[in-house]
């Protein structure tokens, strides 16, 4: 028996560095192609309302020039829905978005946002786009995601990544419990935000998780050792964690 955990590489912050000077270097499409050669299974990009990193042209080029599946992270707005329907990426992950935040700071409120999110998810599904909702590892949010009609959830790992000691153990347990609940509901379970070489192992060991999306840390590591080596090391850590989890199950 084997288990394969997919790795999506988020190239947003290649565009952040490019935009610091204008021009076209470094190119997020080149980063996506390098990530593909290093073993990535997908490319993730967040087209933010304020276009602070990824641009409309980047999305167009990622779609045309990169053969890996594209996961478009998007806010639940009419503008983003129109863009997603036009490009029909492999997947769309709906995230909460506030202009003033530095990064996505938490999961969506799938309970309070049900009436807005359900028609949006339905329009994307009809266009053949795999819809996921980025939510907190919370049973009620998972139940709401199911009732919205999203086939996939991405669990927010940001709180776990920042936690220490007993809080860290509690956060990890929350993610484990949520992943098991997702499986019971028939939802595919992904996870991401803030993951590093140090924090990825325990998350990758969770058997119900099918995909991780990782960006900021890897783009930062690429400054020191190159993107190829950073992605390969993350891939190896994930593979080792998967093997360890299977060993535990069969022991
Ligand atoms: N998943 C989602 C839904 C995100 O919004 C982000 C950040 O854009 C990531 C994963 C990747 O997070 P990080 O860049 O911290 O690895």
Q: What are the SSEs and their pairings?
A:
Elements: E1 6-10, H1 12-21, H2 28-37, E2 42-46, H3 56-65, E3 70-74, H4 78-87, E4 91-94, H5 114-126, E5 130-135, H6 139-148, E6 152-156, H7 158-162, H8 165-185, E7 188-192, H9 200-204, E8 209-214, H10 216-225, H11 227-250
Parallel strand pairs: 1-2, 1-8, 2-3, 3-4, 4-5, 5-6, 6-7, 7-8
Pyridoxine-5'-phosphate is lined by residues 10, 12, 46, 73, 93, 95, 103-104, 134, 154, 192-195, 213-217.
Report on the architecture of this protein.
The protein has helices at residues 12-21, 28-37, 56-65, 78-87, 114-126, 139-148, 158-162, 165-185, 200-204, 216-225, 227-250, and strands at 6-10, 42-46, 70-74, 91-94, 130-135, 152-156, 188-192, 209-214. By secondary structure, it is of the alpha/beta class. The chain has an eight-stranded parallel β-barrel with strand order 1-2-3-4-5-6-7-8, surrounded by seven helices. Helix 5 packs across helix 6, helix 6 (139-148) packs parallel to helix 8 and helix 10 packs across helix 11. The longest helix has 24 residues, at 227-250. The radius of gyration is 17 Å and the shape is globular. The two termini are 13 Å apart. The model has no long low-confidence stretch (mean pLDDT 95). Pyridoxine-5'-phosphate binds next to strand 8 and helix 10.
């Amino acid at each position: 028996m084997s288990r394969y955990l997919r790795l999506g590489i988020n190239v947003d912050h290649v565009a952040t560095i490019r935009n610091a000077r204008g021009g076209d270097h470094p190119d997020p499409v080149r980063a996506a192609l390098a990530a593909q050669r290093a073993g990535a299974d997908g490319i993730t990009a967040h087209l933010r309302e304020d276009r602070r990193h990824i641009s409309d042209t980047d999305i167009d080029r990622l779609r045309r020039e990169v053969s890996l599946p594209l996961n478009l992270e998007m806010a639940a707005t009419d503008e983003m829905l129109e863009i997603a329907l036009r490009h029909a990426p492999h997947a769309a992950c709906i995230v909460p978005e506030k202009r003033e935040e530095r990064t996505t700071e938490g999961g969506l409120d799938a309970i309070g946002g049900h009436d807005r999110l359900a028609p949006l998810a339905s329009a994307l599904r009809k266009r053949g786009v795999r819809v996921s909702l980025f939510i907190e590892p919370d049973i009620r949010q998972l139940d709401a995601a199911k009732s919205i009609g999203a086939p996939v959830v991405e669990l927010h790992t940001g709180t776990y990544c920042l936690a220490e000691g007993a809080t860290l153990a509690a956060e990890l347990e929350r993610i484990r419990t949520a992943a098991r609940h997702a499986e019971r509901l028939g939802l595919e379970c992904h996870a991401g935000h803030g993951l590093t070489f140090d924090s990825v192992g325990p998350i990758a060991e969770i058997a119900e998780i099918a995909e991780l999306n990782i960006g900021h840390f890897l783009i930062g590591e690429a400054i020191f050792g190159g993107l190829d080596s950073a992605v390969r090391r993350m891939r190896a850590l994930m593979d080792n964690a998967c093997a360890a989890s299977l060993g535990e199950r069969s022991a």
